[in-house]
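Reminder to self: tokens first, then the designed residues, so the page reads top to bottom the way the pipeline ran.
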């Protein structure tokens, strides 16, 4: 039986105590297991320096804004994010991707070429009412490679306001050089019509 009035005080831990030995053995075993596990890849100091420099630049940039300008910036970002999510996007379209820019640049600089589209006669906008369909050929593309000295000089004269009132085009345009055969059709009242020079046959820069 133990005396209830007796108090026990914990002994100070010493290097030779079992607890210290057990902790040292556990630490040695953990260090051994840690040494067996490959270390995680660390970021190079150059990348860390670049990251910290970017953070410093952005911090100084934000410090230069007033409180009202920061609020306007945040509201604009939130609005663009909401528009992107409503349109089915999954990311904030702050900056266009380089691939999209290249695609748009290629689309803008496609050479002049002949294209075709199947439309109804009523869609031609010539005043005929007919459900018949025709093959409408048209010219599409740019003429950057066809710019001549005439176009450059004309553009310079316009910029210097030497040519003011006349409506002139200072660059070549993709237009039909020849037209296809005449197109004949019946309207909704069974009247017969023939339209000439409707579809392009050959395209070029003029």
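Designed residues (206 positions):
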């Amino acid at each position: 039986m133990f005396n209830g009035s007796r108090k026990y005080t914990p002994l100070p831990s010493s290097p030779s105590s079992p607890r210290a030995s057990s902790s040292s053995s556990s630490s040695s075993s953990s260090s051994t297991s840690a040494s067996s596990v490959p270390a995680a890849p660390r970021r190079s100091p150059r990348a860390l320096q670049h990251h910290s420099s970017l953070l410093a630049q952005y911090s100084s940039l934000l410090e230069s804004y007033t409180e009202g300008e920061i609020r306007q910036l945040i509201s604009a970002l939130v609005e663009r994010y909401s528009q992107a999510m409503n349109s089915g996007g999954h990311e904030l379209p702050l900056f266009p991707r380089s691939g999209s820019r290249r695609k748009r640049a290629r689309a803008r600089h496609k050479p002049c070429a002949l294209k075709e589209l199947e439309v109804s006669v009523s869609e031609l906008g010539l005043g005929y009412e007919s459900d018949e369909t025709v093959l409408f050929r048209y010219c599409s593309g740019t003429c950057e490679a066809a710019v001549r000295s005439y176009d450059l000089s004309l553009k310079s004269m316009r910029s210097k306001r030497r040519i003011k009132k006349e409506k002139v085009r200072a660059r070549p345009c993709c237009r039909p050089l020849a037209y296809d055969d005449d197109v004949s059709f019946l309207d909704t009242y069974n009247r017969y019509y023939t339209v000439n020079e409707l579809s392009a046959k050959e395209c070029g820069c003029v």
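The first strand starts at residue 113 and ends at 120.
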